[in-house]
Specification:
With 438 residues, the chain is α/β, with parallel strands linked by helices. Helices cover 29% and strands 22% of the residues. Helix 7 runs parallel beside helix 8.
Length: 438
């Protein structure tokens, strides 16, 4: 018995495809027919799903998530995180290593692989850059590779020692591992709660200056340029460097210039950073749900992020899905844990804030949410061709809905978007031979 998706809008940026059509998938999850501009005649026993013009796209991929397992399962587990991902239209996510214990060895990678095999989405594991993410000694990059790890990061912190960061760049280049940088000068950000400026002063909260992010990116870009110029990596590869959750105008400009200089630099932005700014904390009742790192930046920086999406400087949208328990957020803002959940609101925010405002096309949004994250991590490209594995997301771009915490599949509820009206929503996925839909 196969599955036929009839009357879809087929969008696949990697094939420059945006057209009406239908798709049949066989009983083991392989595409066996794609009909452009027409329907497909069903065979006996086929399940027919009429999409009525909804979008059939490559399965979305979030390259920056925290599922908290092992060590903090009261916030999220691999199972609940995967359920939230599927609900949001994601067929794959990359998990950051700042669990308890930190995933800084093949043992931690093997744990995730073993416990995620039966889940409906793919879980890629990001290995820590340094042992216990302390920034003092490199983790075993070579052993990571033998376990299929494609990227390393000390997310949640950043290597403050420039010599250690240089070594990380050189070793990562030797193994063609992507370096994902949580850019933060901790000497500048120490004790800070939100963006430093007039709003933090008004609220009486210690600020984090925007330069705490950009100064770290500037250091790293200079090192990348120096290594390239002097060919000191000892490898045929140049270091590949990716800025996580970019949030300031200066940071976007640094990435833009690095790309123009021919460096292998990419970056991602979160939906909350291109939707909100520090001014939104003023009238917020639940201020704890507006506390994250990097903090919500100024109105001017938010516009720079949007400009970076439009002009192609920003390569991907990633949620930085960071679940926290109720007591860790419903407290004074200077005591709240950093981070919010985002898997189940990402599509809605992207369509509402970017597509519906005619800033980007829907195809470009899918590129940011699916095609580019997979490309940056070196994952297999999803193609709509006969013989390819079906890895699909179904999106209703016209769906009007309100964010309701009772609908969440995540164990946590920490988001500033509860009650917000959005347009556009993922309504199903097909992956691993299985259809999950509303």
């Amino acid at each position: 018995m196969g599955t036929i998706f009839q009357n879809a809008r087929l969008i696949n940026p990697s094939e420059q495809l945006d057209t009406k059509g239908s798709m049949r998938i066989d009983e083991v999850g392989i595409i066996d027919q794609v009909a452009i501009g027409s329907g497909i005649t069903p065979r006996e026993g086929d399940r027919i799903i009429d999409l009525e013009g909804k979008v059939l796209a490559p399965g979305l991929f979030d390259m920056h998530c925290h599922f908290r397992e092992p060590g903090q399962e009261y916030k999220e587990t691999l199972e609940s995180g995967a359920a939230a991902a599927a609900k949001g239209g994601f067929t794959g996510v990359a998990l950051m290593p700042n669990t308890r214990p930190v995933i800084d060895s093949p043992l931690g990678v093997a744990y995730i692989r073993h416990h995620s095999a039966s889940l409906p989405v793919d879980l890629e594991v990001i290995g820590a850059m340094t042992a216990e993410s302390k920034g003092e000694a490199l983790a075993p990059f070579g052993k990571y590779c033998s376990y299929g790890v494609k990227a390393v990061s000390d997310d949640g912190t950043a290597i403050q020692n420039t010599q250690i960061m240089r070594l990380a760049m050189e070793y990562a280049a030797n193994f063609d591992l992507l370096l994902i940088q949580h850019a933060e000068d901790r000497h500048l950000s120490a004790g800070g709660v939100m963006n430093e400026g007039p709003v933090s002063a008004t609220l009486g909260l210690k600020g984090i200056p925007e330069v705490a992010e950009s100064i770290m990116i500037g250091r790293d870009v200079q090192m990348l340029a120096w290594l390239k110029r002097h060919k000191l990596c000892g490898s045929l590869n140049e270091p590949r460097y990716h800025v996580a959750h970019i949030s300031t105008a200066e940071s976007v400009d640094l990435v833009r210039k690095a790309k123009a200089a021919g460096l292998k630099v990419s970056c991602e932005v979160t939906p909350h950073h291109f939707t909100l700014c520090d001014e939104d904390l003023v009238d917020a009742v639940d201020k704890g749900n507006f506390i994250m790192k990097p903090p919500l930046s100024s109105r001017e920086s938010r516009q720079a992020l949007i400009d970076g999406i439009v002009d192609g400087t920003i390569d991907a949208i990633a949620t930085d899905h960071a679940p926290h328990a109720k007591h860790e957020k419903e407290c004074p803002p200077d005591q709240a844990s950093f981070g919010i959940i985002g898997l189940e609101t990402s599509v809605g925010l992207s369509i509402t804030e970017l597509v519906d405002r005619n800033l980007v096309s829907l195809s470009r949004a899918i590129e940011l949410l699916s095609t580019n994250p997979r490309r940056i991590l070196g994952l297999e490209t999803i193609l709509f061709k006969t013989g390819e594995k079906a890895n699909l997301c179904i999106i209703d771009p016209e769906c009007a809905w309100t964010v309701d915490e009772s609908d969440f599949r995540s164990k946590s509820r920490n988001t500033p978007f509860i009650g917000r009206s959005l347009k556009g929503r993922a309504v199903g996925i097909f992956h691993k031979g299985r259809y999950i839909g509303e």
